[in-house]
């Protein structure tokens, strides 16, 4: 399922969300110039669990908890992450305010990376991507707007159809799929050989559920959300 939009209008311009998207895209374009040698960037700025847990020997590796959030492994990786951030980030930023949202976003990414590193403590494979931080955004969005409508593009064989379902169902299904895939990866040992960082997604989402209400402004902007069933706002 591919998210294409939601029913929640924003009241403030999402400066932080758009800036994060721009930075991620800019860094990805820089990565393209490296070609196959981009792995050097990943090894230097990505989170490597086996190295992270020896941070007392090299404290600078703690910075990779931040730098890894701005690296992506390919077009599908960057486009998928930025689409999710584009659709859900603006409304979460609205609820938190710009500075709170930035801190929340980065902290969610850090906790997501730690969750993945905890599940694979001896791995020497770099973990990269903004998906952990964005998973935190999704968790906060589900807390803030559980009944909002999310428009999803669903591929069915050779066709592509659109459906609208409540955010609680859409994001709940997304989290369940990440959790089941995470368990499957543990059972097959796939976490140790690379691939999708399922437990970073899970850790980021749980972080968003917990931190979202904490970072929310006391008086966030008021929203009119359209009720599709009763055909009224």
Could you write a compact summary of the structure shown?
The chain has 9 helices and 3 strands, in the order βαααααααββαα.
List the helices and strands and how they pair.
Blueprint (H helix, E strand, L loop, with lengths): L1 E5 L8 H20 L3 H8 L3 H4 L11 H4 L7 H22 L1 H22 L11 H14 L4 E8 L2 E8 H22 L9 H18 L18
Antiparallel strand pairs: 1-2, 2-3
Helix pairs in contact: 1-5, 5-6, 5-7, 6-7, 6-9, 7-8, 7-9, 8-9
Account of the protein in words:
By secondary structure, the protein is mainly alpha-helical. It has a single domain, classed as Rhomboid-like fold, CATH 1.20.1540. 58% of the residues lie in helices and 9% in strands. It has helices at 15-34, 38-45, 49-52, 64-67, 75-96, 98-119, 131-144, 167-188, 198-215; strands at residues 2-6, 149-156, 159-166. A three-stranded antiparallel beta sheet has the order 1-2-3. Helix 1 (15-34) runs antiparallel to helix 5 and helix 6 (98-119) packs antiparallel against helix 9 (198-215). The longest helix has 22 residues, at 75-96. The two termini are 27 Å apart. The mean pLDDT is 89.
List keywords for this structure.
233 residues, mainly alpha, Rhomboid-like fold, 3-stranded antiparallel beta sheet, 9 helices
Mean pLDDT equals 89
H and E string:
EHHHHHHHEEHH
Which quaternary structure do these chains form?
single chain
The tally of helices reads 9
Class computed from helices, strands and strand pairing:
mainly alpha
CATH top level label = Mainly Alpha
Q: What overall form do the CA principal axes indicate?
A: globular
Largest sheet: 3 strands, antiparallel
Strand order of the largest sheet: 1-2-3
- The CATH topology turns out to be Rhomboid-like fold
Report Rg. Answer: 18 Å
How many DSSP E strands? 3
Structural domain count: 1
* Uncertain ranges: none
What's the CATH superfamily, by name? Rhomboid-like
Distance between the termini: 27 Å
Strand content: 5-15%
Residues in helix, %: 55-70%
């Amino acid at each position: 399922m591919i998210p294409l939009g939601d029913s929640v209008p924003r009241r403030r311009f999402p400066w932080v969300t758009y800036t994060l998207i721009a930075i991620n895209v800019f860094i990805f374009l820089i990565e393209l110039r490296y070609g196959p040698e981009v792995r050097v960037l990943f090894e230097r700025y990505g989170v490597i669990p086996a190295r992270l847990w020896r941070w007392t020997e090299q404290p600078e590796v703690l910075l990779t908890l931040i730098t890894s959030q701005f690296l992506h492994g390919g077009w599908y990786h960057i486009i998928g992450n930025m689409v999710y951030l584009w659709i859900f980030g603006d409304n979460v930023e609205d609820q938190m305010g710009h500075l709170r949202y930035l801190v929340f976003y980065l902290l969610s990414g850090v906790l997501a990376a730690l969750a993945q590193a905890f599940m694979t403590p001896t791995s020497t494979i770099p973990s990269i991507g903004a998906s952990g931080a964005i998973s935190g955004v999704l968790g906060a969005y589900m807390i803030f707007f559980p009944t909002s409508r999310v428009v999803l593009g669903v591929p069915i064989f050779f066709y592509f159809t659109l459906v609208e379902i409540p955010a609680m169902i859409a994001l709940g299904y997304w989290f369940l799929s990440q959790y089941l895939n995470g368990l499957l990866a543990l059972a097959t040992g796939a976490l140790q050989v690379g691939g999708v960082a399922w437990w970073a997604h899970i850790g980021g989402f749980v972080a968003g559920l917990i931190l979202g209400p904490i970072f929310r402004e006391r008086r966030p902007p008021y929203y009119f959300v359209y009720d599709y069933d009763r055909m009224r706002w």
